Amino acid sequence: MRGRPSAQAAANLVTPVSARLSSYLSREPAHGRTTDDVTRALREAVLDGVIPPSTWLRESDLAAALGVSRTPIREALLRLADDGLVERVANRGSIVKAMTPEEVLAVYYVRESLEGLAARAAALRGHPDLVARLEQIHAAMAECSSDGASSALAEMNLAFHRAIRESSADNPYLHRFLVQVEQAVRRFGRSTYDSMERREQGLAEHAAIIDAIAAGDAERAQAVAARHMRKAREARMLMFIESSDPVQG
């Protein structure tokens, strides 16, 4: 059973970040789309860490920050609870859910299969534009790797895998599941790219994925993409062992 939130979590209210929320709803919600727009804004704020884990979500604060009534806020929180981003606590309200180490590792097990399938599909399609895009991202990551911030590398890493995912858009189920995986990865917090060794390994693994896709070798593309995810999982497990702080990448 889940214990009661700590005093620190209870003190971590949405009020200090309310001013930053307005940028996530930069336009007037379209008629009949207010709940959708509010849900999207809150989801992105949670995934970006603007509203961090263990933050209590006050409907009145959120409504004031986004310039809407409490009704779409309430409906949006219910949707986010269905997505697993928010937890509804009886008689207390909603709190941003933190991911446990077990949940983080579970994402990697699923991601290993899905990323392998996406790379396989990309190799079968043989889109030159995709290869060019992957090479562009890879070059940017290589340039940033020696002294760049791990957060920038993590964002480029997501862009790399997003490009492969988007090439599989004709398979709506694979695309949808990979979108959910990306949202989970964005919640991890610190990046495995904090490690210089992992940066070098990740670049080499990305190069292998690009080579396999460019060659149209579906079997190899699937194998190297799956191996890339296994290595990422191993790196994160090592970070769990070395630090009590769950760690994106």
Brief description of this entry?
The protein is mainly α.
Strand order of the largest sheet: 1-3-2
How many helical elements? 11
| CATH fold annotation of the largest domain | Four Helix Bundle (Hemerythrin (Met), subunit A)
The CATH class of the largest domain? Mainly Alpha
The major sheet is characterized as: 3 strands, antiparallel
Series of secondary-structure elements, N-terminal to C-terminal: HHHEHHEEHHHHHH
Q: Averaging pLDDT over every residue, what do you get?
A: 86
Distance between the termini: 30 Å
- The CATH superfamily of the largest domain is known as GntR ligand-binding domain-like
| Uncertain segments | 1-13
The fraction of residues assigned to DSSP E strands is under 5%
- Overall structural class, as computed from helix and strand content, comes to mainly alpha
- The percentage helix is 55-70%
Count of distinct structural domains: 2
The CATH architecture name of the largest domain reads Up-down Bundle
User: Which shape, going by the Cα principal axes?
Assistant: globular
Quantity of strands, as a count: 3
Radius of gyration: 20 Å
Describe the protein's topology.
Layout: H1 7-11, H2 18-21, H3 34-47, E1 56-57, H4 59-66, H5 70-82, E2 86-89, E3 93-96, H6 101-125, H7 128-145, H8 150-166, H9 172-185, H10 196-215, H11 218-242
Antiparallel strand pairs: 1-3, 2-3
Describe the structure.
The chain has 249 residues and is mostly helical. It folds into 2 domains: 7-96, Orthogonal Bundle (Arc Repressor Mutant, subunit A); 101-242, Four Helix Bundle (Hemerythrin (Met), subunit A), CATH 1.20.120.530. The protein contains 11 helices and 3 strands. It has helices at 7-11, 18-21, 34-47, 59-66, 70-82, 101-125, 128-145, 150-166, 172-185, 196-215, 218-242; strands at 56-57, 86-89, 93-96. Strands 1-3-2 form a 3-stranded antiparallel β-sheet. Helix 6 (101-125) packs across helix 9 (172-185), helix 6 packs antiparallel against helix 11 and helix 7 (128-145) packs antiparallel against helix 8. The radius of gyration is 20 Å and the shape is globular.
